[in-house]
Amino acid sequence: MRPFTYTPTSTVPAATQKLKANPNAKYLAGGTNLLDLMKEDVEKPTELIDITRLALTEVKTIITGVNKGGITIGALGKNTDTANHPLIRQNFPLLTQSILAGASAQIRNMASNGGNLNQRTRCPYFYETSMPCNKREPGTGCGALEGINRMHAIFGWSEACVAVHPSDMCVALAALDAVVKVQGADGKERSIPFTDYHRLPGDSPQKDNNLNPGELITSIEIPKNNFANTSYYLKVRDRASYAFALISVAAGVELEGTRIKQAKIALGGVAHKPWRALEAEKFLVGKEATEANFKQAAELEMKSAKPLEHNEFKIELGKRAITRALMQAMTGGKA
Predict the structure, then answer these.
(1) CATH code where residue 25 lies
(2) Cα–chain-centroid distance for residue 271?
(3) What is the DSSP string of 292-321?
(4) What is the pLDDT of residues 31-78, one digit of tens each?
(5) Residue 324 has what DSSP assignment?
(6) The CATH number of the domain where 262 resides is what?
(7) Keywords of this protein's UniProt record, alphabetized (predicted)?
(8) Which pTM was predicted?
(9) For residue 322, what is the enclosing H or E element?
(10) Which pLDDT tens digit goes with each residue over 197-210?
(11) How many domains would you assign to the chain?
């Protein structure tokens, strides 16, 4: 690990000003991903700005504004505390399930909510500094494009990068239409719809999200919904614990009688960002909540997938995972 300066801070304005003053600095919260990357010489900050003392841990009901009746969760709340908070378990079990599907208990006890959004890909070519990687060093090429790409993207990838976003929590937040609240060094606050927060790789895969320089995530807002009891998070992976998703599905269905009033579906492990399954959602509106309709929705969604050499299996896997997640959602995951 390279030498760096450690700078504690206790207010949001102080933190954003310090980051603005040093473009080579990084915020330090849980550190569960950043410190690993520093040890591997992938991340090379000259300064770590410790933000763990900031008062950004609260989970509470939103009482005013467009998201009234929803929940806001602090950016520095721990993943475990968020997953097990009564307001989250009662109103957004989809989020609880997704968080508890990620990493290990020890990591979830340290990892922060904001850090979960900003964790970087686990593409092995990104971590291996002897290999080309446009995300790690722009202009060097993509080792995974012609390499072993079994875990990689089937949607939204570019010739510059085929890596996928690793988070489980973010897949649920995408399906829940969450909003990311950020504050910049100028003191201005900004709201970013969750589906706009992360980026597809395009020609700039080194940019994971649409944060402006110096901006700090302060909270995440989740609007109220009507599918707490008809939602489910399904994660398909190579082993039952401490493995990233081959494909994951966050599914929520709101019913009107026996027909579907609205469906919210997001996929993980398939793109550079949580992938909103808009084709499937559109098809399901007004349909009966049957396995046959769920299968047809999955077929439609996976039609536009573009597999790489080693991950064509993800197309069939995706169809089955979407169908199964929707079926499980109808029973709240109890079947």
Answers:
(1) 3.30.43.10
(2) 11
(3) HHHHHHHHHHHTT----TT-THHHHHHHHH
(4) 999 999 999 999 999 999 999 999 999 999 999 888 889 999 999 999
(5) H
(6) 3.30.390.50
(7) FAD, Flavoprotein
(8) 0.97
(9) helix 313-329
(10) 999 999 999 999 99
(11) 3
